[in-house]
Amino acid sequence: MTPDLLEDGARRLAKIAQKGEQGKTESGGREAGFSRVATPGEVDVSHGRILYLEDVCVSFDGFKAINKLSLDIAPGELRCIIGPNGAGKTTMMDIITGKTRPDSGTVFFGSTIDLLRYKEAEIAQLGIGRKFQKPTVFEQLTVFENLELALKTDKRVVPSMRFKLDSRQSDRLAEILHTIHLADSVSRMAGNLSHGQKQWLEIGMLLMQDPKLLLLDEPVAGMTDEETARTAELFLTLKGKHSLMVVEHDMSFIRTISDIVTVLCDGSVLAQGTLDQVQADERVIEVYLGR
Ligand SMILES: Nc1ncnc2c1ncn2[C@@H]1O[C@H](COP(=O)(O)OP(=O)(O)O)[C@@H](O)[C@H]1O
Ligand SMILES: [Mg+2]
Predict the structure, then answer these.
(1) Residue whose CA is closest, atom 24 of ligand 1?
(2) pTM for the whole thing?
(3) Residue 290 CB contacts under 8 Å (≥ 6 apart), including other chains
(4) Nearest 5°: phi and psi at 28?
(5) Which atom belonging to ligand 1 lies closest to the Cα atom of 247?
(6) CATH numbers and ranges of domains, the chain
(7) Residue whose CB lies within 8 A of the most ligand 1 atoms, among 58, 60, 63, 101, for a mutation test
């Protein structure tokens, strides 16, 4: 995949998004191979990656928080990210979601969408959902209303001004309620849920938008052991349907859910492999796991 091709694809995609038209080849032919890369709303994963970062750098007041960071994630993969505090894990998510602009480097969603060309809200609409550490549900609303609200594009509309779900959306809501273990709590106020349940509800709200890639920052922090175990179960059911990037410190949780673990340190990848492999790596033991 050459940078030229990437550039070209991104330009065409931007043009198509602007005009709102379906993918046509420049020669005016029928969709041909091009539709594969440029149908709006679709991410081209034909190169086997849904997320691709190369040589990304960002400094804050001269301090290199992200330093030549390169990594990629396959479609449907559940990637775990570990590393000491200050390693740059949250900053990496800020960059992927458009909250922070890198000083240099490449960040692609699939092989054609150059994320550095998009604003934060546009990136969410492209299908990248993000869960911050703290749950941010609407405490005064019920579980159902929170999920319903997740579909609204204009969140300022008063929740009581009901907008009607179509049958596909209702089915999806019911399915998600089940997935996040809140089917018995539909009419409970979100404010009355346990910490773990609030986290699940927020994940459910993200799922309502059917994201292709989900970024989750320390999702089980503060959860009870039982909630943590249920969250592991939940993530394993999401794997394959969505691609996930999960930052966590809880090693037993990581052990349950992980295939490949990436260790970040000083803003770049220190090691990568199965949990057993990275746990046996001297450099990882030195900077993170301790002796
Ligand atoms: N907006 C910012 N301004 C200044 N420094 C920042 C900012 N965001 C992060 N940092 C610094 O960048 C480093 C990486 O932080 P962070 O990404 O939060 O690490 P992690 O999530 O791995 O603990 C830290 O030293 C942090 O203080
Ligand atoms: Mg962090």
Answers:
(1) 86
(2) 0.84
(3) none
(4) 85, 5
(5) 21
(6) 75-100+125-289 (3.40.50.300)
(7) 60
